[in-house]
Amino acid sequence: MLKDSGMAINFAPYRSKSLNRFVSIAETYPFECSVFEHYDEDVFNKHLEAKQINKHYSSDLHHPILVILRKRQKSDQ
């Protein structure tokens, strides 16, 4: 449960579009969702480095995506 002005922060990789499905479902409830792939310079640079040097690295499985969920105001619903 979130307060009326509440916000939830979630980090998760896309994982074969399961993150996209989560966001789609959350948006059917009283939430606005913002998704960010490039939210921190250090994290993004490590992501790019891992893509270059680690053959087992998969952006889909390993790169954390930032999702911010904000509860919509009653007048926005």
Automatic annotation (TrEMBL):
<dbReference type="InterPro" id="IPR029063">
    <property type="entry name" value="SAM-dependent_MTases_sf"/>
</dbReference>
<keyword id="KW-0963">Cytoplasm</keyword>
<dbReference type="InterPro" id="IPR025800">
    <property type="entry name" value="CaM-Lys-N-MeTrfase"/>
</dbReference>
<keyword id="KW-0808">Transferase</keyword>
<protein>
    <submittedName>
        <fullName>Uncharacterized protein</fullName>
    </submittedName>
</protein>
<dbReference type="GO" id="GO:0005737">
    <property type="term" value="C:cytoplasm"/>
</dbReference>
<dbReference type="GO" id="GO:0032259">
    <property type="term" value="P:methylation"/>
</dbReference>
<keyword id="KW-0539">Nucleus</keyword>
<keyword id="KW-0489">Methyltransferase</keyword>
<dbReference type="GO" id="GO:0018025">
    <property type="term" value="F:calmodulin-lysine N-methyltransferase activity"/>
</dbReference>
<dbReference type="GO" id="GO:0005634">
    <property type="term" value="C:nucleus"/>
</dbReference>
